[in-house]
Amino acid sequence: MENTLRLDASFVDYALVVVYFAVVLMIGFAARRRVSDSLDFFLSGRSLPAWITGLAFISANLGAVEIVGMSANGAQYGMPTMHYFWIGAVPAMLFLGVVMMPFYYGSKVRSVPEFMRRRFGTGAHLVNAISFAVAQVLIAGINLYLLATIVKALLGWPLWVSLIVAAAVVLSYITLGGLSAAIYNEVLQFFVIVAALLPLTLIGLHRVGGVGGLVDKVTAAGNGDELSSWPATELSGFENPVWSVIGIVFGLGFVLSFGYWTTNFVEVQRAMATNSMSAARSTPIIGSFPKMFVPFIVVIPGIIATVLVPEIQQLKAGDDSGLQYNDAILALIRDVLPNGLLGVAIAGLLAAFMAGMAANISAFNTVFSYDIWQQYVKKDRPDGYYLAVGRWATVGATVVAIGTALIASGYSNLMDYLQTLFGFFNAPLFATFILGMFWKRMTPTAGWAGLVSGTLAAIAVFVSVETGLLDLPGQGGAFVAAGAAFVVDIVVSVLVSQVTAPKRASELAGLVYSETPKEQRTDPEAHLLPWYRSPTKLAGISLGMVIILNVIFR
Amino acid sequence: MSDPSTESTGTKAAGAFDVRNVIAALIGFYGVVLVIVGLVDRSAEALSKAGGVNANLWAGIVMIVVAAGFALWSRLRPIIVEVPTETREGH
């Protein structure tokens, strides 16, 4: 099916895009040359104020998933998409800040594979490293596909040409040092995206006659039930509202989101760059405040698109229109933003997708060269050798991402695909991680056995949904797969631990909660902080606000 | 900004590389460009897209205000950076 979406960009729009990337590359270049102590400060470890890392924390996640995926979800399912933020993100971010972060910050565990190796030895480490590398390449494919969609919408090239061009652009972005200033760029990117999406939402609302007009038009189109977020039976695919709520709270709210936010070290590393334990704990908590309002500029435009963009209207009515739900936000940008603001929007979207993919590729590169190649293939070579391996891994991963982008292009709503991937990779990881952290009896064999069986359980659920054995439309299949992966992983780990030998308690310091000295996990100066810097008080306020939002938009 | 007394103790304000100043510069630049576009391009097509509102002009004005806010914030509450004096002398 040939997609006909075109953005009519003018000279001014391109100029705004070029200026953005000139600034980003300049910072990257300056960072590599280490031209300034001030810049070093913003990039180096453990010195940043919490508001910067908090913004970087959500900006690292405000990429393809949020913008295109959530607006597509908003267009297809309506207000229930809010659950991805209020149920599926904020509670997990608060949990990360209140419970997990003291442990991470104190024990200096720097990556999930590193934790796996030290806690469980090579078996779990190898399984985790491989599954992480595969997940990164698949997710890089999503980012690449979206990047190519924009290139295609701007220039009208066929998808495969756009994919290759987009891949080449990302490679040069990584090579030119765009990623070396990641935290810095993420903060910048956040404001550019808000500068694009906030006017988009406000103008869109103005066009449909304000909030009242939007409600009337959605109701008139026969989709009035999409205006309330609970019980979200369409989203979860469960007919029974009670099961739907359970599926969302346990599958999305607990397994998927806790798995994503607490084991995603691309995010956690942002918090590691702060100057104190309290600031590290505050990072995800401060991030949760903007996070709970992000859906208003992402999901709402998706809903507006269903009444304002003719093609999405047709799609919603069940007709073939040449556009997919993934195109909702781009189509709205095309119809609503005049030249000028259009350029800001293109700059923001390109920045988000490019930075997202670059982060995936570089995470793959690190794990491939140090966790897989150095550990299991060629040991004890000089540093230069692994750097060279890393460079080839970067090129290789980019080429493979072109292939995985084609997989992503087969999904009309990318959230379906993404949540499925998270079920495969994050849910078992979270189970093993949390069990290994709090239960010192868990054995090395249980570590890898749990991971493997959890992933297999998720794949089994996925296959039975695909083949129609289980009837779960929407994203319920992904929620059930994640739940199954979590439960199977826990059960197998507990059973295997009963019959195999655990590690000695002395080897578990800094890895298991009960074996980690309290001084390592607490901030001695915490009681001196004012309330607005106290992580637990801020977390309480954030939780209260999310509950209020849930009540208002129920 | 570079008060000699703070210089000697090995600290200084982050200055141009303070991320707030970079935000102010970029968003401020975008704001100015949008205001100009909004004043020049008042074609019916551009106006009808936004339902009769001059979107570029208004968005541009808001961006300039936000940029000014960031510049002011970093001026009033500068982030102090420790200058690693020993590595300085080492090079």
Summarize the structure.
The complex is a heterodimer of chains A (554) and B (91). Chain A contains 24 helices and no strands. Chain A is mainly alpha-helical and 554 residues long.
Question: What would you note in describing this structure?
Answer:
The complex is a heterodimer of chains A (554) and B (91). With 554 residues, chain A is mostly helical. Chain A has helices at 11-33, 37-43, 50-59, 64-77, 83-86, 90-107, 112-120, 122-155, 159-175, 182-207, 210-220, 233-236, 241-263, 265-272, 277-308, 310-316, 328-336, 341-377, 383-409, 414-438, 444-466, 476-499, 518-521, 535-552. Chain A contains 24 helices and no strands. In chain A, helix 8 crosses helix 9 (159-175), helix 9 (159-175) packs across helix 18 and helix 10 (182-207) runs parallel beside helix 15. Chain B is mostly helical and 91 residues long. Chain B has 5 helices and 2 strands. Chain B has helices at 4-8, 19-40, 44-49, 55-76, 85-90, and strands at residues 11-13, 80-82. Chain B has a two-stranded antiparallel ribbon. The chains are: A mainly alpha (554), B mainly alpha (91). At the A-B interface, helix 1, helix 2 and helix 10 of A face helix 2, helix 3 and helix 4 of B.
